[in-house]
Amino acid sequence: MVNYLGLKNVLAMKLMSQCKKKKKKKNMHHGKLLNYFNLFLFIYLSFVFNFENTKTSTTTNKEQIPSTLLISFLSFDIFSYWFATRPKALKAPCDLRMQSVELPGGEFARRGAVLNGGPLLSHFYEDAKTLYEWFHRGLRESNNGPCLGSRKPKQPYEWLSYSEVIERAENLGSAFLHKGHSKDGDPYIGIFSRNRPEWTISELACYTYSLISVPLYDTLGTEAISYILDKTCISTVVCDVPEKVKLLLDCVSGRQHSVKTLILIENFDTDLVSRAQQCGIDIISLRDAENIGKAHRQHPVATCELSVMMFVFSQGNPKGAMLTHSNIVSNVSAFIYVTKDTHISYLPLAHMFERVVQGVILMHGARIGYFQGDIRILMDDLSTLKPTVFPVVPRLLNRMFDKVNSPLKRRILEFAFRRKENEMKSGIMRRDSVWDKIIFKKVQVIIDLRIVVVFSVVMGHVRMMITGAAPISAPVLTFLRAALGCHFYEGYGQTECTAGSTATIPGDWTAGHVGAPLPCNDIKLVDVAEMNYYAAKGEGEVCVRGPNVFKGYLKDPEKTKEALDEDGWVHTGDIGRWLPNGTLKIVDRKKHIFKLAQGEYIAPEKIENIYIRSEAVAQAFVHGDSLQACLVAIIVPDPDFLPGWAKKRGIEGSYEELCKNKEVKKAILEDIVKLGKESGLKSFEQVKDIALHTEMFSIQNGLLTPTLKAKRADLRDCFRKLIDELYSNIKI
Fold it and tell me: What UniProt keywords are attached to this protein's entry (predicted)?
């Protein structure tokens, strides 16, 4: 109950306050429009209220507000607020209706339209053609500003300036030379550490003196590490903690090896030194190494072309992809340019995705803050650092989407989502709309704390997010773009192309594609006749050529010839389709394909990526062979979602009990088959039976590679008995 006169005063104060706020902003056009809207609204409401007061002065209900009038007021106020605060669409760098153009020559190759017919981009700045030069450019751009930051628990970030980083890198690099390393002999330096400033300092030390960095994964086993050490003949490895040193000693103990020196970042004891000496290895601290270099300072020798040895993990032994300064500089130059940004480094630096993002940051004099090394407290690092650039992998995005995709939340969000989706289609990306304030702000705080990106977005600091490394479904990406309201880009690539080969462009917020070719490479599709894909129809295997394409695999000419043809095109093994707007859509996978008994070709990874969209499914392994006429699958249900998912279907129990329940198995099979139909899978691409497995596929149990890709041969061997049982039941 509100008195009409009191309501009029409240409305007048509200509208005048809103107008004053708008006047403070520079957008005078919108401010004037809002004034006109509010003036009209105030006059209209005053007339109606006065009329109603006169009409109902003798009734007992004169204090009531007409509900239809209140609804009209709210609707009109929302519209006026939306219209007045609606930002302009982001200007796209090219025509969004044609983002790539076909090149002459009859190969069906395409080039990004952002180049406007010009040559491929090898570098963007004349003073930044090597990784050494790009860092020094960052020094100049930042005016020796903060560069690398780290923090101790519950403490603020402490920063090293650009000049401090360069000085430490030159000291460490000089120590490498003093130990006998050179670009012509013993050029490889191993880096075996989590993300931290010392990782980047070690990398820059290599660039400064034309040495080659060889990143080692935290999750590598002794077999893979031993292979890499032998393949590269590494004599020096920089490690962060004693546990990594112990793992390296396990790899070389009792056999011939090349390792001579281990440089340890954190403290260590004499027992570790003694054990290393028994293997013929010296251990020194990073501080001592820098002091050695300071006493034997060398002038920079940044001329060597080869810069990084990235080991690619698939079936069999890892392959060493040789990447040059030119490869990385061209790829970094092709991405979005940033200034005065802050980046949170938590994705593994042993992957090129994170390295390229850091390159963009450092080339422009921005700063990088490293997480403390524990993903469980990354939220605390985010709230302290307040990053503006946040790369994220699809796995996190899928979990974010699952958290808000319950039926109740879905109904609440649907209307607001459609309103924001309409703005995105017009090229507008924002997080200050009325829908953000009323609805999506709630979404951004209800997501599980393990999904670490959200807090920083809520705080309004993240302006740009980048996702890649794996496929992400269009509904998930579209929803999160609307809900989070920052510029959200998707890219596609692989290590052999340095990192990225396509990316969505500013202003294009549509989903369902991976963007146009980057300015550093062309893309063509080639026929895959056995899968019925033909380049003339705009479909085929994705091939990439440009200055970002690697030089081959270390000491492996056969594998190099398989991946890199004589014309310089790297064959990715992915199947793509050109869309009418010139963007690329990844639709299938050529590698790991097999033929069923009836002659149909199957790409299991495509099917698995569809099945894991089920709320109940965490992992899937689809199997078939030429002796069988159908597919089966091993499914690992999601322990976080399975109990709630099953309860909705009237089934309760522990995770282990549910995985043994035949009704749960039947329900999951029906759900994934339904998803398959919705995604356009043919009947022969659908599994006919499944088995539920309770243990996640992991690096530790040997079923995933260090890059978290399925070891298909090992999975097949591990589940051979289950697979045979599934086929036996189908035959019955």
Answer: ATP-binding, Fatty acid metabolism, Ligase, Lipid metabolism, Membrane, Nucleotide-binding, Transmembrane, Transmembrane helix
